[in-house]
């Protein structure tokens, strides 16, 4: 059970790094059109889309990915609490 829990937490951490990489790719022209950029787009956009519907951009700055990363972090912390309660 502990190994599965650790695997889930590592997966959440890797996904957070993927989201950060996807955000940084917006700073470089043409980066999202690369093969790696398309992979990150397919992996990250389904998670980011609900946040973008709720949180409008502030001028040219889109803060929805930041809220998405914070939400993912809070969910992983909640998972840790639930797992510790089960033990």
Automatic annotation (TrEMBL):
Signal peptide: none annotated. Belongs to the YggT family. The keyword Lipid biosynthesis does not apply. The chain crosses the membrane at residues 7-28, 66-86. Keywords: Membrane, Transmembrane, Transmembrane helix. InterPro entries: CCB3/YggT. This is YggT family protein. The keyword Transmembrane helix applies. PANTHER family: PROTEIN COFACTOR ASSEMBLY OF COMPLEX C SUBUNIT B CCB3, CHLOROPLASTIC-RELATED, YLMG HOMOLOG PROTEIN 2, CHLOROPLASTIC. The lineage of its organism: Bacteria, Bacillati, Bacillota, Bacilli, Bacillales. It comes from the Bacteria.
């Amino acid at each position: 059970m502990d190994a599965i829990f650790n695997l889930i937490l590592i997966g959440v951490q890797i996904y957070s790094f993927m989201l950060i990489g996807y955000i940084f790719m917006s700073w470089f022209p043409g980066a999202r059109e690369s093969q790696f950029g398309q992979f990150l787009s397919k992996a990250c956009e389904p998670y980011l889309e609900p946040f973008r519907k709720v949180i409008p951009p502030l001028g040219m700055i889109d803060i929805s990915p930041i809220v998405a990363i914070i939400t993912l972090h809070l969910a992983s912390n909640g998972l840790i609490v639930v797992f510790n309660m089960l033990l």
